[in-house]
Amino acid sequence: MPPQQPPKKSKAGAVIAVVVILGVIAGAGWYFTKGGGASGAVAADTKGYKLTFPASVDAYVKNPDALGTSNGDKPLTAEQKTKAESIGVKDAHQAAQQYLNGVKGKAKQMTASGFWGQIDDPERALDAYFGTIGAPNPETDKLGLKYEKVGSPKAFTPDGFKGAIMKCVDVKMTTSKPTKPGEPSALVVPTCAWSDHSALVAVNHMDQTTILTGGSQGTQDEVSKLAAKLYNTSRTKV
Asked: Which residue among 11, 32, 80, 146 is buried most deeply as judged by most CB within 10 Å?
C-alpha cells in the first residue's frame, strides 16, 4: 500500500513521516510471526462485516488529498491474498484512510489501515501484526529507515469498545539519513490495532506541528479512544 502524503516541510521530516503513515499492515513487509492466544473476548456476531470508514471521527475529517487511501472494495492481488491468508485473513480486502484535525501542515493526523474478510482467530492475527514491527523490511531498509516497538503491546478497552480486542504500543521510527540542525532523527508514534472476526485495523497518530521537533505525537490512551470510535462507525454488514 503506498504511503499517505506527509507534510512537505523538509526531506528529513518527510522521510520520518513516510514511516509513520505507511499502511502499517501492508507496509510492514508481510514478515508476520506466529501469534498466540484464544479469541474468547471477540463476539461471534462480529462476523460478516466490511470496512467502510466514516467521513469523520470527532474533529478528525477525511483528507481528500491523501495518497494510498482505499475504500476496500477492490480485492487483493493473488500474492497479497496469499500473504493475508497466512495470518488468518481469508477473502481479504484492503482499506485505508487518513483524517486531519486542523489546517493541513499544522493538523493532528490519524491514519487507519487494515483488512476485512474472515478472521477465525482474531487475537492470533492481532499478535501477528504486532510481530511485524521491527522485522526486516526491504522497502524501509532502502530508505534508511527502521522502526521498533517501545515495550510490549498492551490490551486496551476504551469506553464503548465491545466485541473486539485492541492492543496499543508506542512505535519508534528512526532514519539514518542526515537531518538538519534541530530536527530529530527519531520519532515515537502511538499505535493501536483492533481485530474481530471480520477485520484487523491499525490506527496511528501524529501531530504535524511537532513532527520536525520530535515532540509528542499523542498518547496510547488518546489513540485507543479514537480507534474505538472508528471501530464503532466503520463496519457495515456485507
From this structure: 32
Three-class secondary structure of residue 142 per DSSP: helix
Q: What is the DSSP string of 103-164?
A: STTSSEEEEEEEEEEEES-HHHHHHHHHHHTTS--HHHHHTTEEEEEEEEEEE---TT--SS
Phi and psi at residue 86, in whole multiples of 5°?
-65, -20
* Residue 59 burial (10 A CB sphere; 0-12, 13-18, 19+): exposed
Residues 6+ apart with CB under 8 A from 23: 1, 2, 3, 68, 94, 96, 113
User: Tens of pLDDT along 69-108?
Assistant: 666 666 678 877 877 787 788 988 888 899 999 988 888 9
Distance (Å, whole) CA 233 – CA 113: 15
Q: Which of 52-56, 87-91, 167-171, 197-201 bottoms out in mean pLDDT, i.e. has the lowest?
A: 87-91
For the CA atoms of 139, 91, 155, 5, the dihedral, rounded to the nearest 10 degrees, stands at 40
What is the distance in angstroms between the CA of the first residue and the CA of the last residue of the chain?
23
Contact indicator for 98, 4 with CB cutoff of 8 Å: yes
Hey, what amino acid is at 107? Answer: A
Q: Which among 203, 180, 181 has a CA at the least distance from the CA of 193? A: 203
Residues 6+ apart with CB under 8 A from 150: 169, 170, 171, 172, 188
- Whole-prediction pTM: 0.81
Residue 163 has phi, psi (to 5 degrees) of 95, -15
